[in-house]
């Protein structure tokens, strides 16, 4: 069969998705909602007429895309914003998921007249917030969320997949009599988190050294290297019995918060890959659903959405955040932004692949819940945040006029050098740094504001200086300026 028709259809769908993102921005609708809609229109029930019912292939596409999206999310997350909310975020990623699954599952069993185990399976599938939805919606908004709301939500969505996957697989194995009960499955939960975290840290450490030390002939190969690392991290961790999703997020978080050569090109590349992954994933998942079946579950699914958004999620959020004394206004916004997205739809393919009774009904209900969640909650975040007084001005970040890492004809490049607290450069003026003649301090990024330094400019902890230097000279300057004060050694 010729490949050209498939390429033409695929290119056309991606092009429509890209154009629809522009429309979504103007209408205030999350773009991923339109991506799903395009997939539905292209499917067998829509004018596209594409007959696609391969749940296993859809599951594979969704898993691969989620791994790339989580890696990009980790790369672009600053550890300084995540560290203060580590406790609340991880508690939401575990305790909140279990509570949400239990409440939603009991209601689902009653509303759809399902066995309790099947209802709990449905609750487990929709129990986690979705990284693709949360990152896409929060990072395209024009207003900021006060306090630690946004980093908490992003950390939760990046780390709650292991618990949702555990609950889903555990219930499927119990229903298929592949496991004797919950106690026999608890080691799997521990392994998911422990191996996932260890694998992510190890991969992040190795990735940083590989990027900074490998001398590749072309700059364009470095993003390809990190892409391979992301895929390998997920696959290797999953094969070892850990959470590949957690590992790939931690790997990206580690890599994005360390000194990294070619940082700008790597970040830009993975941002584009994450968008492509979102488009491909939502298009494929949209193809899997049969829109003509959705009206049959619409009424009861709306009840489930209401319970999930107004009862289960708020109760779960409150229970998870009580120990951390999070202000109730922030709790209310966090509870509302419990966006469901690709993760529940991907998890809904597990019962289809395993042949669980009522799996088709579960998939349709989950798809309807996701559509409604993104449409209702994703479009009202700003209004709800303003209602609870939890918004702040969020001006756009000022971009540097030169790109870090881009080589110049003389062999030098613009390099970013963060100044740690207590380092040699902390508190010193530029003139006292003793920079070599071949090094030019071009700019200083201070709180996202770029200033042109003079000899009297005094550097401080948290500043990011942009140095024009060759690779070998930069390494020498970096080691000298970031050494702890009192251990200066040789001048740069």
Short structural description:
The protein has helices spanning 4-27, 31-42, 55-75, 79-82, 86-111, 116-125, 131-138, 149-159, 161-175, 182-213, 221-239, 244-256, 263-288, 294-321, 328-336, 342-354, 359-376, 381-387, 471-481; strands at 143-145, 391-393, 413-418, 440-446, 449-451, 464-469. With 492 residues, it is mainly α. It folds into 2 domains: 4-393, Na+/H+ antiporter like fold (Up-down Bundle); 413-481, Regulator of K+ conductance, C-terminal domain (Alpha-Beta Plaits), CATH 3.30.70.1450.
Walk me through this protein's architecture:
The radius of gyration is 24 Å and the shape is globular. It starts with a helix and ends in an 11-residue tail after the last helix. A 4-stranded antiparallel sheet has the order 3-6-4-5. A two-stranded antiparallel ribbon has the order 1-2. The protein has 2 domains: 4-393, Na+/H+ antiporter like fold (Up-down Bundle), CATH 1.20.1530; 413-481, 2-Layer Sandwich (Alpha-Beta Plaits), CATH 3.30.70.1450. With 492 residues, it is mainly alpha-helical. The chain has 19 helices and 6 strands. It is 62% helix and 6% strand.
């Amino acid at each position: 069969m010729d490949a050209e028709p498939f390429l033409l259809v695929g290119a056309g769908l991606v092009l429509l998705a890209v154009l629809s993102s522009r429309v979504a921005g103007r209408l205030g609708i999350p773009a991923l909602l339109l991506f799903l809609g395009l997939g539905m229109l292209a499917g067998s029930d829509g004018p596209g007429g594409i007959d696609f019912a391969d749940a296993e292939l859809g599951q594979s596409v969704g898993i691969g895309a989620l791994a790339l999206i989580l890696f990009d999310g980790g790369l672009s997350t600053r550890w300084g914003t995540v560290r203060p909310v580590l406790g609340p975020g991880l508690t939401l990623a575990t305790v909140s998921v279990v509570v949400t699954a239990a409440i939603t599952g009991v209601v689902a069993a009653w509303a759809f007249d399902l066995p309790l185990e099947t209802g709990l399976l449905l609750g487990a599938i929709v129990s986690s917030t979705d990284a693709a939805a949360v990152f896409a919606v929060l990072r395209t908004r024009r207003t900021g969320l006060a306090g630690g709301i946004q980093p908490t939500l992003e950390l939760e969505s990046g780390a709650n997949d292991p618990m949702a996957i555990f609950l889903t697989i555990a219930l499927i194995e119990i229903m298929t009599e592949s496991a004797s009960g919950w106690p026999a499955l608890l080691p799997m939960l521990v392994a998911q988190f422990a191996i996932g975290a260890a694998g992510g840290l190890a991969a992040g450490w190795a990735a940083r050294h590989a990027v900074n030390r490998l001398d590749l002939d072309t700059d364009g190969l470095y993003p390809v290297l990190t892409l391979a690392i992301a895929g390998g991290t997920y696959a290797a961790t999953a094969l070892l019995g850990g959470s590949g999703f957690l590992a790939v997020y931690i790997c990206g978080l580690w890599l994005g918060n360390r000194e990294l050569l070619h940082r700008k090109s790597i970040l830009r590349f993975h941002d584009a890959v994450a968008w492509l992954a979102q488009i491909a994933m939502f298009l494929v998942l949209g193809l899997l659903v049969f829109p003509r079946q959705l009206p049959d579950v619409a009424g009861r699914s709306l009840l489930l959405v209401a319970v999930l958004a107004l009862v289960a999620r708020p109760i779960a959020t409150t229970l998870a955040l009580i120990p951390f004394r999070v202000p109730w206004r922030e709790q209310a916004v966090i509870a509302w932004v419990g966006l469901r997205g690709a993760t529940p739809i991907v998890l809904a393919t597990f019962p289809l692949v395993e042949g669980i009774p009522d799996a088709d009904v579960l998939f349709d209900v989950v798809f309807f819940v996701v559509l409604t969640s993104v449409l209702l909650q994703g479009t009202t975040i700003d209004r709800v945040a303003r209602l609870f007084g939890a918004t702040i001005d969020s001006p756009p970040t000022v971009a540097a006029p030169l790109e870090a890492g881009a080589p110049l004809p003389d062999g030098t490049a613009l390099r970013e050098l963060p100044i740690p607290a207590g380092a040699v450069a902390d508190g010193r003026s530029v003139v006292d740094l003793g920079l070599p003649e071949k090094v030019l301090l071009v700019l200083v990024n201070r709180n996202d504001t770029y200033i042109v330094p003079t000899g009297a400019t005094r550097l401080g902890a948290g500043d990011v200086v942009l140095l024009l230097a060759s690779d070998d000279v930069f390494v020498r300057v970096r080691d000298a300026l970031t050494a702890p004060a009192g251990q200066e050694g040789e001048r740069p």
